[in-house]
């Protein structure tokens, strides 16, 4: 299985976790939400059973681009 394929399940779980958090705290700013996603990544990996994984660099690059920062 390719590394990218192993990242899909934790990313989906991460988005679910973020949605749950967002529904309980609607006052998060974008930066704090991004930080929260990074902090939740290990738990998303654990929940999906893929083991410890490095956060996908492509996702980090997209976040940097959305913030107007170079890669």
β-sheet strand percentage:
under 5%
Q: Nearest-angstrom radius of gyration?
A: 13 Å
Q: Regarding quaternary structure, how should these chains be classified?
A: single chain
Mean pLDDT: 78
- Structurally, the number of domains stands at 1
The count of DSSP E runs of length 2 or more, i.e. the number of strands, is 0
Ordered list of secondary-structure elements with their pairings:
Elements: H1 3-24, H2 30-48, H3 57-66
Task: Describe the 3D structure.
The protein has one domain. The chain is mainly alpha-helical. The protein is built from 3 helices and no strands. The protein starts with a helix and ends in a 5-residue tail after the last helix. Helix content is 72%, strand content 0%. The longest helix is centred in the N-terminal third of the chain and has 22 residues. Helix 1 crosses helix 2. The model has no long low-confidence stretch (mean pLDDT 78).
Keywords:
71 residues, mainly alpha, 0% strand
Outline of this structure?
This protein is an all-alpha fold and 71 residues long. The protein has helices at residues 3-24, 30-48, 57-66. It has one domain (3-66).
């Amino acid at each position: 299985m390719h590394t990218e394929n192993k990242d899909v399940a934790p990313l989906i779980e991460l988005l679910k976790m973020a949605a749950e958090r967002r529904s309980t705290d609607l006052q998060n700013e974008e930066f704090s939400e991004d930080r929260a996603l990074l902090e939740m990544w290990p738990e998303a990996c654990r929940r999906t059973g893929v083991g410890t994984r490095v956060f996908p660099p492509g996702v980090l690059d997209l976040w940097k681009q959305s913030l107007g920062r170079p890669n």
